[in-house]
Specification:
Elements (H helix, E strand, L loop, with lengths): L5 E7 L3 E8 L4 E8 L3 H4 L1 H19 L9 E6 L5 H14 L7 E5 H9 L4 E6 L3 E6 L5 E5 L11 H16 L10 H11 L4 H8 L5 H5 L2 H9 L4 H20 L6 H5 L4 E6 L6 H11 L12 E7 L4 H10 L13 E8 L2
Parallel strand pairs: 1-4, 4-5, 6-9, 9-10
Antiparallel strand pairs: 1-2, 2-3, 6-7, 7-8, 10-11
Helix pairs in contact: 2-3, 4-13, 5-10, 9-10, 10-12
Length: about 350
């Protein structure tokens, strides 16, 4: 009887990460969790250390000796787009923690999401701390929009929403820009969340002790304002965020293979990230953002949005297996559910 082989996968975000260990038969052996694994934010050394800690934890739970390497480890990480960065992380793992895995496959976090739900091509739209849209056509060609981080984009993500909310408050109090609605709720929520008494106190969070994840966390209070408090300005911000997310799909519309548009449910998009929990206040703007803007855009007739039931770590493990010619028996249909479908007239 052949020895059972073990494959690992890590879904790595800008805020937190999750890992799975699967057997070659597709059985889930263990899960573990950790903080950010985005090497652009925390550095390569901290990234590889966090990965090792998660693997050690998962191996312990699975009853696998710590010094027994996994057959392959898929790393689907936020910030994992560039080959140079991939090489630095993988080389760091091999040098510093040689017993973690025999083989590695590293890619951006969007690829893991697609590989969790789709066997041959698909689209994913991430709206977590940041935002990122990725298309993989059945022929393997890939195209992306966004994913440039909070200094150059992240439109529609939690950081973008939080920053926009804070900016409305600052601009109104400065009499610099008139907001589309009253800022009272957001101002009080901002002082409460950041534990400050005035706008000057917020400068510490914006500059000297800036923490992207902490700042993005203010999005939760904006969401509460939009959904629970009925605050008009919060609702407007989420409508604007929805439009930004819809534009990601519109931007890639001309690159989508016809087979992905003409199947049941039209274009199926895997939606990942906590911002999607506020779909009811994103919806209006999202549909508007998907509309063609120029001659380069293609009208998408039908769209279906999918919510993951399983972590993208499964897709990462799947990619790790594929990288060495091993096809893990992933049950794609069981990994997501439909939460919205729409046909444009």
């Amino acid at each position: 009887m052949a020895e059972v082989e073990y494959f690992g996968g890590i879904e790595g975000g800008a805020t937190h990460s999750k890992m799975v260990i699967m057997s070659s038969e597709g059985k889930i052996m263990a899960w573990s969790e950790g903080p950010s694994t985005n090497h652009w934010l925390i550095g390569v050394d901290q990234c590889v250390t966090t990965i090792n800690d998660m693997v050690v934890d998962a191996k312990k739970q699975a009853g696998i000796p710590e010094d027994k390497p996994l057959k392959a480890l898929g790393l689907s990480l936020s910030g994992g787009e560039k080959e140079e960065g991939q090489k630095q992380v993988i080389d760091g793992m091999k040098t510093k923690f040689p017993n973690v895995s025999e083989n590695y496959k590293m890619c951006t976090d969007t690829f893991g999401a697609i590989a969790t739900v789709c066997e041959s091509g698909g689209m994913v739209l991430i709206a977590g701390t940041g935002s990122n849209c990725q298309l993989i056509n059945p022929d393997g060609e890939t195209y992306g929009c966004g994913g440039w981080g909070h200094m150059m984009g992240d439109e529609g993500g939690a950081y973008w929403i939080a920053q926009k909310a804070v900016k409305y408050v600052f601009d109104y109090d400065d009499n610099f820009h008139e907001p589309p609605s009253d800022t009272s709720y957001l101002k009080l929520a901002m002082f409460e969340y950041f534990k400050v008494n005035d706008r000057i106190g917020l400068l510490d969070h914006l500059y000297r002790n800036f923490d992207k994840s902490k700042f993005a966390g203010f999005c939760k209070l904006v969401a509460q304002g939009a959904k629970e408090k009925g605050d008009k300005l919060c609702q407007i911000i989420f409508t604007q965020a929805g439009e930004m997310l819809g534009k990601h799909i519109c931007a890639l519309s001309s690159k989508i293979d016809k087979s992905l548009l003409e199947g049941e449910g039209g274009l199926q998009v895997v939606c990942v990230g906590s911002v999607w929990k506020s779909w009811d206040v994103l919806r209006e703007g999202f549909l508007r953002g998907m509309l063609p803007r120029n001659e380069r855009d293609v009208a998408i007739k039908t769209i279906t949005l999918l919510e993951l039931k399983q972590s993208c770590a499964i897709g990462a493990a799947n990619l790790g297996g594929r990288s060495i010619g091993k096809k893990l028996p992933v049950k794609y249909a069981d990994n997501a559910t439909v939460f919205f479908s729409h046909t444009f007239s």
